[in-house]
Amino acid sequence: MLATVCVSMTAVWRGKVRTLLPLTRRLTTDQGGTQPPPAGPLSSTPDSQPPQRRTRKDPSGCSVFLFPGQGSQYVGMGRGLLKYPNVKEMFSVAEKILGYDLLALCLQGPEEELQKTVHCQPAVFVTSLAAVERLHQENPRAVETCVAAAGFSVGEFAALVFSGAMDFAEALYAVKVRAEAMQKASELVPSGMLSVMGKPQAQYKYACLQAKEHCGSLGVEEPVCSVANYLFPDGRVIAGHQQALDFLQQNSRRLQFIRTKPLPVSGAFHTELMALATEPLREVLRQVEVRRPEINIYSNVDGKRYMNENHVRRQLVKQLVSPVKWEQTLHEIYERTQGQNFPDTYEVGPGKQLGATLQKCNRKAFKTYANVVVSSAYDD
C-alpha cells in the first residue's frame, strides 16, 4: 500500500525571501520506506513562486552555513526546534520515508540506536535543516544573505537541500540509502576510524603505509589504511582495517602522534572499504532530481564549488571512497584579500565541532562564528 503525503511549507530559502520550495513536494513512499519519492515538478500552490537565480554576492557582509556530519548526534537534539514553523512537519515526512519515528529517536534515544549509521545520518540531516528554520525565525537576514555553504560528509546533503539543488524528501531518501549501504559495507571486515593529532613532523601517509605493511604480515589481504578526514593543521582522521588502526595506536609515539582516539563509528568511512556502498548511492541519485545549486556549495572531495547537477551526482558518490578535505574546503571558502571582512558563519545542526575546526584553521573567520542551538531545557 502506498502512503501519500503532501507537505506544503513556507518561509525560507529561495529568491529574496527564499521560500522553502525544495520542501514543497508530493512524497510517495510505501509503509516500509523502501521506494524513493518520485521526482517531478514542484507542487502548484498559491504560495509557490517560480525559482529565481540569486545574484552572486561578495561574501563580505554576508553569511556562510556549515552543516555537521555523523558523530555530532546526541540524544535530546531537536528539542529546541519543535516550536518553530515546519519542523514537526519535517519529522513527520521523515517518519514516512524512513519507516520509523525519527523524532522520538532524536529526543529519547536509546543512544545506542541513535549512534547506528543507519539512524544517525538521517537524524543529523533532518535536525540540521530544522536548525535552519530556527535561524530563519530568529535572524532571517542570516538566511537571506547566505552566499555559501558546506557540509561535512552526510552534511553535504543538507547543504545541497538548502541551496535548492535537491528537495528535502528526495535527499532524505538518498541519505537513507547511503546510510544503509555504508552500514552494510562496514560489516564485511573489522574496520574503523581513528582521530589523530600529530606533531608538525608527523608523516601520515608514511604511517599508513607502515600500518598496511603490518596488516600484510598478519595475512590481511589488500589492507586499507588512509587519511579519511583532513580536519585542520596536524589534525586528521585515519581509517581502515582494525589491525592497521591498532598498529597506529601502539606505535603512536614513534610515528610522532600526540594523541589518538578511536571514533564511535561502525566502519572505515571515506576509504576504499566503502566501495560496496557506491553503486546503491549512484543508483538512487539517478532517480532523484538534482539541480545546479543557487549558492556556492563546496564538495568534500576536493574543496571546490559544485558546477552543475551532474557534478553533484558524481562527487557525492566519489565522496564515499575519498577523504573529506574539510581543511581545504575552509581555506577555499574564507580565502580573501588582506583587509577584506569575513562573513558571519553559522553552524546549523547539532554540536560545535565544525566551529572548533574553523577556529584551528582560521581564527579571524572564527570571530564571527555562531552555532544554532538545537536542544534547550527551556524549549520543551
Automatic annotation (TrEMBL):
Pathway the protein contributes to: Lipid metabolism; fatty acid biosynthesis
Compartment(s): Mitochondrion
Recorded catalytic activity of this chain's protein: holo-[ACP] + malonyl-CoA = malonyl-[ACP] + CoA
Extent of the signal sequence: none
GO cellular component, one term: mitochondrion
A Pfam family that the UniProt record links to this protein: Acyl_transf_1
Keyword tags: Fatty acid biosynthesis, Fatty acid metabolism, Lipid biosynthesis, Lipid metabolism, Mitochondrion, Transferase, Transit peptide
Keyword Lipid metabolism: yes
Name of the protein in its database record: Malonyl-CoA-acyl carrier protein transacylase, mitochondrial
Organism name: Acanthochromis polyacanthus
Lineage, top ranks: Eukaryota, Metazoa, Chordata, Craniata, Vertebrata
